[in-house]
Amino acid sequence: xxxxxxxxxxxxxxxxxxxxxxxxxxxxxxxxxxxxxxxxxxxxxxxxxxxxxxxxxxxxxxxxxxxxxxxxxxxxxxxxxxxxxxxxxxxxxxxxxxxxxxxxxxxxxxxxxxxxxxxxxxxxxxxxxxxxxxxxxxxxxxxxxxxxxxxxxxxxxxxxxxxxxxxxxxxxxxxxxxxxxxxxxxxxxxxxxxxxxxxxxxxxxxxxxxxxxxxxxxxxxxxxxxxxxxxxxxxxxxxxxxxxxxx
Amino acid sequence: xxxxxxxxxxxxxxxxxxxxxxxxxxxxxxxxxxxxxxxxxxxxxxxxxxxxxxxxxxxxxxxxxxxxxxxxxxxxxxxxxxxxxxxxxxxxxxxxxxxxxxxxxxxxxxxxxxxxxxxxxxxxxxxxxxxxxxxxxxxxxxxxxxxxxxxxxxxxxxxxxxxxxxxxxxxxxxxxxxxxxxxxxxxxxxxxxxxxxxxxxxxxxxxxxxxxxxxxxxxxxxxxxxxxxxxxxxxxxxxxxxxxxxxxxxxxxxxxxxxxx
Lengths: 247, 261
Prior knowledge:
The complex is a heterodimer. By secondary structure, chain A is α+β, with helices and mostly antiparallel strands. Chain A contains two helices and 16 strands. In chain A, the strands form seven sheets. Chain A has a three-stranded antiparallel β-sheet, with no helix packed on it. Chain A has a three-stranded antiparallel β-sheet with strand order 9-10-11, with no helix packed on it. In chain A, helix 1 runs antiparallel to helix 2 (208-246). The two termini of chain A are 20 Å apart. Chain B is of the alpha+beta class. Helix content of chain B is 23%, strand content 31%. In chain B, the strands form eight sheets. In chain B, strands 7, 8, 11, 15 and 18 form a five-stranded antiparallel β-sheet that branches. In chain B, strands 12-13-14 form a three-stranded antiparallel β-sheet, with no helix packed on it. In chain B, strands 1-4 form a two-stranded antiparallel ribbon. In chain B, a hairpin with a 5-residue loop joins strand 7 (102-106) and strand 8 (112-115).
């Protein structure tokens, strides 16, 4: 059995997975607050009897690109973008606290403030709920003030404050639902230093040009792997011919 | 099934929907009282190929894992209810709402619909109706021989009779919703109440946080054509990139089939 064939096969398989990650980034180039995933390859020598000549490549997450996306003005009161570093705390579908940069918020029929995907936005005490209001304003530190329905403008009242966090990047990881959580599973403490700007949204931080270059590079790398699989195949064929001639 | 291929396919789907939304906004750039829509994108679930932090041996853990995203979807379209600009038309039955609130319209089946379009007209009975012919609620009937109709800031409608006598003939009421983005658009400039919008709160214009009436003016569409055009360019390029990604994966697979035979 030619082991080289299997090394090349592993390489091709891992490169296809990296291409999947890259395509996922491209598909999300319009998703508000999306953070691009990065992928890297780790060499995995195969130890056994004799000298370890074979090294397989294993694709692995090299984390998420947490740099900021471009800010787009929308003028809508409930659109907020986090300035610089930091995240908005939301309650994930599994009930745990998770963090996102997507600030296209909305008010539900019972007054609960959610993200566009329907996840409740959290304060330090729990989900953020606002009374029926003519106007909801989000301040730069996440303070929510509302003008209750039917009251004069001077009746504007502060309700609560959106929980904003800024845990160290190395402690964060992206879950299956695309939300960031602490690796330890704990809740990050609120950080008063994180600020919001309302009326703007943060676009996806996917760099289109870079993703396209990655795509081309991965495609060519894949070709190399396939080419070496095909070389192994030819080697085997020649060996087989030699053997059959000898007999 | 190749995840790289399907991920790019979801991107094409989403951008296609986005383009439909942009096209609808641009098509309605001159529709009275139209509120622009926008799409909310969301990343799809991630496939966990290798769990980070899993035990590699009794005493060590994998420092990195591998999660593959599966693409994107459009999770919602939301309407932007900011005020459109107001144009003067001087039509006596053209009314714009300055601020929050919706006119209530009685549908043919008796239910209520809501609109920001205040370009009213009269039917053959003298009832105030929308351009589609649906009556305003509460109904207002203009008596025969009326010289002119005046609509006050607070929605009071008065008619001037042939004998130069002014009489109040009705009161326009506005409806407000806790979550106006939850209203369901049904076409013909009408929106209907949904479970997400909450129940309507009906009041006199100018009270309870509602806007006031302005006669002889219409609220134009709040579509910002420049923004829509920029969105369209971005959408088109994103579509091209996704289609390029599909081509790339296709070529990769093609390379396998041609070289490994």
